[in-house]
Amino acid sequence: MKKKLSPEVLEMVKDLQTQCIGGEKEGKDLCKLCMAECKMLNKHTDCPKDLFHDVDQSGEVEEQIPYSCTMCRACTLVCPKDLELKEVFIKMREDLVGKNGGISPMNGHRGIRMHQKLSFSKLFNTTKKHSAEGKRVFMPGCSLPSYNPELVKAVTQYLSSHLEDLSTVLKCCGKPTGLMGQNELFQERYRSLQDEFDRLDAEEVIVACQNCYKIVKTCSPQQKVTSLWTLIDEIGIPEKAKGVGRDSSLIFAIHDSCPTREEDEIHGSVRNIVEKLGYKTEELTYSKNKTRCCGMGGMVGAADFPLAKSIMTSRAGECESSHMLVYCASCRDAMTIGGKKTLHLLDLIFEGPYDKNSEISSKITNPIKNWGNRYRSKRVIEKIGRT
């Protein structure tokens, strides 16, 4: 369904369309570098210049188009003009929300709205000091607690044994709300997270989720934000995990989360950790600062699951190995859907060793089990006493 856009958003569209040098001239393509990077663009147009020209002329956009962007910025990386298509699409989303009573117009987002409501409810949130001070806050995020409460327990205990001033805040950063285009509600929800940081007098936030890393770094400039992976690389992996994968026959292809694309330190720490574990790895052609989206970005699955699945399958197909290693639980789901046996880095640290005979699930957990895991993660955190 097509919807009218505001003059402000149409001005952004016109500006981008004017700057884009794509299209054809005398039968030759001028610039379509972005088309080689984006399945979403290929589904909806032959060239972004044409797409935005049509929107500019009609003043309307098909609702599914802005909600089909993964927000990964792969198009911008190759664009000679550094055009930010992501920013235009997120403004379109916000515009459509404003015309739809403050909520996303996509039917597939009903489940995400409920997810966000539950994610900020007392039933699934908790704050626990593991020391008298607790000024270093560990934030497991949403996807990791939904994936494996035992890993949440293991990493929280490990951090509390090494850090004298640790506390844990189990709460969502609100990114899905923002991605739906419900920006005012996102700001309100993030404030509730910031209130927890302030109540603890937090000086540092340690994040396990790569999306949380970006969001907290942007929205909480008064706190130092540290990736869990750089911290574990600094304090070292558990003694019993050192060299545990040295005799494994498995080769893990490392998928870097696209929110970390500019974070060289995180890329290096992840690889240092895997090296200390002893597992063999495969580097994808598109890794580190060239990494591609796993297919979960922008919540595309809720708007166009076939498109999301094609991105997942394509990304998983870039490696020769049958096994992939991720450091984001959402990426684990994506690469599993894409057809690979996929483990989270914390699996290797706390639940190894893994070899060709190890049972690795080829399925993602259903939503009911995810919420059960999330609640168990809350209970686990609350039982970890002060050190």
How would you describe this protein?
The chain is built from 18 helices and 13 strands. The chain is α/β, with parallel strands linked by helices and 387 residues long. It has 3 domains: 2-105, no CATH class; 113-235 and 368-383, Rossmann fold; 241-363, Rossmann fold (3-Layer(aba) Sandwich), CATH 3.40.50. The strands form 4 sheets. A 5-stranded mixed β-sheet has the order 5-7-6-8-9, with helices on both faces. A 4-stranded parallel β-sheet has the order 11-10-12-13. Helix 8 packs parallel to helix 18 and helix 15 packs across helix 16. The longest helix has 17 residues, at 183-199. The radius of gyration is 21 Å and the shape is globular. It starts with a strand and ends with a helix.
What is the topological layout?
Elements: E1 2-4, H1 7-19, E2 24-25, E3 28-29, H2 39-44, H3 48-58, E4 60-62, H4 74-78, H5 85-98, H6 110-119, E5 126-129, E6 136-139, H7 143-147, H8 149-162, E7 166-170, H9 175-179, H10 183-199, E8 204-207, H11 210-219, E9 224-227, H12 228-235, E10 251-254, H13 264-277, E11 280-283, H14 300-303, H15 305-316, E12 323-326, H16 329-337, E13 341-344, H17 345-351, H18 367-383
Parallel strand pairs: 6-7, 6-8, 8-9, 10-11, 10-12, 12-13
Antiparallel strand pairs: 1-4, 2-3, 5-7
Helix pairs in contact: 1-3, 1-5, 8-18, 12-13, 15-16
